[in-house]
Amino acid sequence: MWFKNKPQKNSNFCNGIAQICIIIFKLNISSQPHSNIYNTPPEGAGSGYPTTRAEIHQDLTSRGYTTSGPSSIEGNVVYKDPNGARVTIKSTGEVIPTIRLPKNPANTSWNRPMYNQRTFYDGTIIPGGIEGSHSIGHFVVPFKK
Amino acid sequence: MLDFSLMPYEWQRDMEIIMSNVNLNSIEFLSAKNMSFSFLNSYNGDFYKKILCHNVWRLSEGNIIDEGEEFPTFVCDIRVKKLKNVEIKAAFDYLKYGWDVPVSNEYNLVCIDGGEISIDLICGKIEVLDM
Q1: Which end of chain B is more exposed for a tag (fewer CB within 10 A), N or C?
Q2: pTM above 0.90?
Q3: Residue A137 lies in a domain
Q4: Testing the interface with B: which of A6, A68, A74 to mutate, by most B Cβ within 10 A?
């Protein structure tokens, strides 16, 4: 296997600075999963986030989400709502909410291209520019059969 | 080494994760044996990467996508492992390939797993394309 990458446009120095910034950002949000600046809970919401599988199940099903339960193959669980929102709990316990959005908001046709946008648990969109496997630090107990 | 006697989420930990938290946008048969999988990012829906799988010998797909739903679908991890030695036959057996292991210089196991879709395949050469 090999990778064909785009030509590097930035210098190594700039890439290094960018990597450091990303690492600092990751450390910041993973160490403060309930109070980071991108995910301030509504006033009066208290601690806000459910922190166990049972709490998440209770919270999501009470809001109309449905689930087929965990896959015995890869251990992932997905909760769906009728509007396209999903909350996936990976076998590692990582909680990954997404919402379905049009790729071009100005396009209102019935068959407009859509994509699944990552959000924080409260539905707040994760700021752009971060790609890949970063974690927002929301974990529950890993799957074990 | 992959131990297929374990649960998949256990032996998959020994595979390399090449992408996480992306949208699987399309699956194409480029020919009888070559396939491509294209992915969008999860931040603005832009094209992210494409995986070209050459010489696909075995493909296993399962999903719980509801009727009427369309791609893209969110996938958690895309894992790849270059199979070696006893892993090769074990992987073909695990995916219930019905023939003798084909002769090749390279065998790769690819696992694409999301909450709603799961794809395992064995192929030859793999290319991961950024565009």
Answers
A1: C
A2: no
A3: no
A4: A74
Domain, as residue range, for A50:
12-118
Q: Phi then psi for A26, rounded to 5 degrees?
A: -60, -45
Closest CA to A121 of A25, A23, A55, A28: A55
Please state, in angstroms and rounded to a whole number, the distance separating the CA atoms of residues A50 and A44: 15
Count how many domains chain A has: 1
Q: Which letter does DSSP use for residue A139 in this model?
A: B
Name A67's Cβ contacts closer than 8 Å, sequence gap at least 6: A57, A60, A61, A77, A78, A79, A80
Tell me if A75 and B9 make a contact (CB, 8 A cut-off): yes
Read off the pLDDT of each residue in A85-94 and give the average, rounded to a whole number: 90
Is the model more confident about A36 or about B86?
B86
Comparing CA positions, the residue from B62, B73, B80 lying closest to residue B21 is B73
Burial class (CB in 10 A: 0-12, 13-18, 19+), B113: buried
At B107 the pLDDT is 98
Q: Which two tokens stand for residue A26?
A: 């990751």
Tell me if A135 is assigned to some domain: no
In tens, the pLDDT along B18-37 reads 999 999 999 999 998 999 99
Domain boundaries, chain B: 8-130
Q: What is the pLDDT of residue A39?
A: 36
In chain A, positions 80-109, which contact chain B (CB-CB < 8 Å)? 80, 86, 88-91, 96, 98, 101, 103
- Going by DSSP bridges, is the β-strand pair B117-123/B58-63 parallel, antiparallel, or unpaired? antiparallel
Would residue A6 count as lying in a domain? Answer: no
Average pLDDT over residues A76-89: 92
Nearest to A123 by CA among A84, A93, A89, A94: A84
Instruction: Provide the CB-side half-sphere exposure for B102 (13 A, CA).
Output: 15
For residue A52, being part of any structural domain is answered with yes
